[in-house]
Here is the input.
Amino acid sequence: MQDVVSRSATSLSSIAGTSLKLTAGSTLFCDFDGPIADVSDRYYHTYCLALKATQADYARRQMALPVRRLTKAQFWYMKQNRVPDTTIADWSGLSGHQIDDFLQRIPALVNQPTLLHQDQLQPGVRAAFANLRDRGIRIVIVTLRQSSQVLDFLHQYDLATMVSQIYGSDDAETAYANRTEHKIAHLQAAIAEQNRLGFDTRQSWMVGDTEADISAGQAFDLPTLALTCGIRSALYLKGFSPTEVCRDLSSAVTYLTQSVISQ
Here is the structure.
């Protein structure tokens, strides 16, 4: 898969009409988990802790569970290809009520402070943010994570001043569920407020790493960029017909700031 649509080698300076997909003053709506934060370690360790706790709980009842812990590569492959959590639990050696017990532990674990600290900045994000800032393009984060969590993360990496606004959730458990209707509602609120503040969002794009991000952008007729560095694979994302698929935020910004020929 190519990250960016290949361009003609013809010098753009020799062509009369050229334009940019994103120009100075425009707004880029961007998801947080996946495009900006690498959450793979946190999600995998949440899985491991939930599996271990379930096994220990049954051991206290004198019941030995034949647990098979997946490797991180196996686990993340399943997550990227939208394998249900029930199937992941089944592959891990659980069945019946054991699966229910395992799944009930995840929401409480995934937002523990000790696990949140495992999130890492995706490669190339700092340069991508700087590129957008230097071009006068505003970054507005639309996420199902709590805004306070996002802001803490951005401060940790000295990136908070590069973001114009954060639209997040009040509920800490909303992000893991990643329901499309929630992302649509968040993006709708973000667009409405940006317009009230006097910013034109008609040329905006939506960038994200899940079907929820793509569907939200499409709901408001925004072109969408799907990133494969997060929790969904390229093959899965293409099924939702995004405008373009890129590897990460860095390649997405390159794509969005390249000149295109006006016909």
Notes: Residues 55 and 61 are 10 Å apart (CA to CA). Residues 40-116 form one domain. The longest strand covers residues 138-146.
